[in-house]
Design a protein that fits this description.
Oligomer: single chain
Helix content: 55-70%
Number of domains: 2
Structural class: mainly alpha
Shape: elongated
Distance between the termini: 41 Å
């Protein structure tokens, strides 16, 4: 079931004046805001503008308080500004944060996420112009402090690639991990 589409339909009914649907939209968003999703957020912003955004940001800010790994991009802020281009300013958005700690927490998370994206983008741009020898040296220096396999819980998957290769009937090599997945070279 496509919940985003259900929120789209509900928004149409709520905009037509159905108070029960409006209430259900807010209730459903609040119930699921901490489930690593923001389904219904854009519809609430479409429905009630800055008030809808305040509600969404407060609920997501509460989710951020509970979950230290919570993150969100600025897509909801952009959506609000696109819907109300001559009305909403950065000053008004900052004022929302000043009046509600949960909204401020959400705005801080968004700012942190966007800053991290900018930093990563800058690092990728800087790496694009480095010589191979320089990149290799940096990666080897970082390798000792970075254990992707254990950090991501991929050690079992990684070890499957430590096994020897098999050969397909046409002579191409096949990694034995494919054999584990049910493919066969013979």
């Amino acid at each position: 079931m496509d919940f985003e589409q259900l929120f789209d339909f509900a928004c149409i009914f709520a905009q037509a004046g159905n108070p029960h649907i409006r209430h259900l939209m807010y209730e459903q968003f609040a119930a699921h805001a901490g489930d690593d999703n923001d389904i219904g957020a854009t519809q609430l912003i479409d429905l009630d503008g800055i008030d809808g955004f305040r509600f969404v940001a407060a609920r997501l800010g509460e989710a951020a308080r509970v979950d230290p790994d919570f993150w969100d991009s600025a897509h909801l802020l952009r959506h609000l500004k696109e819907r109300m281009p001559n009305v909403i300013t950065d000053v008004e958005i900052a004022a929302l944060g000043a009046t509600d700690p949960s909204v401020q927490r959400y705005l801080d998370v968004v700012a942190s996420t966007e800053a991290g994206r900018q930093q990563a983008s800058q690092q990728r741009q800087n790496m694009a112009y480095q010589a191979y020898a320089q990149l290799k040296e940096q990666l080897l220096a970082q390798q000792s402090s970075l254990s992707v396999r254990s950090h991501l819980g991929l050690s079992r998957w990684y070890h499957s690639f430590d096994t020897p290769m098999s050969v397909w009937p046409d002579g191409r090599y096949m990694h034995s991990a494919y054999s584990i997945a049910g493919y066969s070279a013979t």
